[in-house]
Write a structure and sequence with these properties.
The chain is an alpha+beta fold. The protein has one domain (about 5-120): Nuclear Transport Factor 2, Chain: A (Roll), CATH 3.10.450.50. It has three helices and six strands, in the order ααββαββββ. The protein has helices spanning about 5-20, 25-30, 50-60, and strands at about 35-40, 45, 70-80, 80-90, 95-105, 105-120. The protein has a six-stranded mixed β-sheet, covered by helices on one side.
Length: about 130
């Protein structure tokens, strides 16, 4: 699998974990080696694995959390670092998101996620099937 495809795969795994409220799968997506950070819409910046994972556990365990789908992911790979720019569809509203990844052999892991309010993207796409992490 090319790096570009692998980055899009792990990005889709992130959104699949989010959509299925799977805390264990979410933990697999994020790096355990590199420093991580996250900025949820309307939140202060979170730094460090403990704070970031605690935030995801709270979000994913909340039955009021909205459904989310990823739209139009575009991956950019630069050596052992990559990022994906995409749109998130959340209950009829759109957010623009940046997801940053680092290569951790044999795969890629997320080190940063940030999303903020965005207008509707110019073109819709067909949903990708959910990935399977190993």
């Amino acid at each position: 699998m090319s790096d570009h495809a692998a980055v899009l795969f792990i990005n889709q795994a992130f959104y699949h974990a989010f959509a299925t409220r799977d805390v264990a799968a979410m933990e697999l997506v994020w790096s355990e080696k590199a420093a991580i950070s996250c900025i949820h819409p309307g939140w202060l910046a979170l730094s460090g694995r403990e704070a970031v994972m605690r935030s995801w556990a709270g979000i994913l365990s909340n039955p009021e959390s909205p459904k989310i789908t990823c739209r139009q992911p575009m991956a950019y790979v630069h050596g052992d670092t990559a990022y994906v720019i995409c749109y998130e569809l959340v209950e009829g509203s759109f957010l623009a998101a940046t997801n940053v990844f680092v290569r951790e052999a044999p795969t890629w892991r997320m080190v940063h996620h940030q999303a903020g309010v965005s207008p509707r993207p110019p073109v819709e796409e067909v949903d990708l099937p959910p990935p399977t992490l190993q």
